[in-house]
Design brief:
Strand content: under 5%
Number of strands: 0
Structural class: mainly alpha
Order of helices and strands: HH
Distance between the termini: 14 Å
Shape: elongated
Radius of gyration: 15 Å
Helix content: over 70%
Largest sheet: none
Length: 66
Amino acid sequence: MDYSQEDLTEAKRQIDSILHKLRETIKTLEAKGERGRYRSQITLAKRRAAALELANHLIQRELTDS
């Protein structure tokens, strides 16, 4: 599929915003007293962050290659 530079730039901007919020959520969950209680949420948030970082990398590569 072909995406315009504007579409890719906006997608990257949105992913950056989501990643920022997700990283803050991870910090909050890790700071809670009963960390074991939040283990699954922390794991899920970290996996989502990793997936979004991968998507961001691919978008950036597409933007620089175009």
